[in-house]
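Batch manifest, entry 17 of 40.
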Amino acid sequence: MFAVSAADKYTMETLGNTFRNNPCARYATDVIFQQTNMPSGQMKEPSAYYSENHHLHGYKVEVSVLPNGLAINCTNHFSGSEADIDIFRNNAKFHQQHLLKSNKEKELVDDGALRDKYPETWVVLADEGYQGLVEDFRAITPFKKPRMGCLTIKQVNTTDGIARDRAIVENYFGRLGTLWAVCSDKYRWDEKHYDTLFRACVALTNYHVRIHPLGSEDGLNYQKYLKHLHAIRHEARAKRLAVQRRYREKRKLRLSRMLAAQIGRPSGGFRDESSSEESEDFLSHESKAQLFILTKSKGAGTNR
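Output type: structure tokens
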């Protein structure tokens, strides 16, 4: 209900304020990621929740925010592996409905980008992850630096303008996470309750924004949240590397003992058929070389 009421109340005709650099934009859209416990089950299930961008398991939710700082839509959660642009397309019904100009809005001035291609709709602002969306929507995204090339001054200025306008979404995410730990801490509860909890927090955040408008400090809080995710990622990687290092050390010790036991056997043979196959997968090249040299030396001594 909060999204419907905000969307109906704040149309382009009655909004009162617009994005500074893109006044023909209806709202800005982005996806927020939240870490969760790694799902149990078959291998394909946990991997579906794994975000290659954050290197963590979690959920994604798309949120659309008006220039006055109010969210007018949030989707159900998606798995962390889902691409942002695919989430947008999955939510196409909402975007088609709320970007469409009303009869009265068609009389408003519209000199924005892609006006000729999409004369019946307003603009949606998105980030670089939505490249290619322009084929189906009147979406403005930052210019991507070409390989082995540079952006023009005009393209750089346009990209900066988009980033400044889109900051409203990051500010909203910062306020959301600051107010409600359930939206920023690692989610450990039942997945089936996630959408209800998230929507409730968005509704309450909208109420808070009406009283205390978004500011740059909210954007800083969101950047802190992203850095926190980055730190968790590196901590998890360090733990994983430590486990691998301990495994290699134990394996090296085990192989050394195996090598000593093989050399100490009678000259009739230093290993049986079963141990040959088992140790073949574990012996390093260096261990194999040492074993070969020592065996040859022992064989030569026996022949004498």
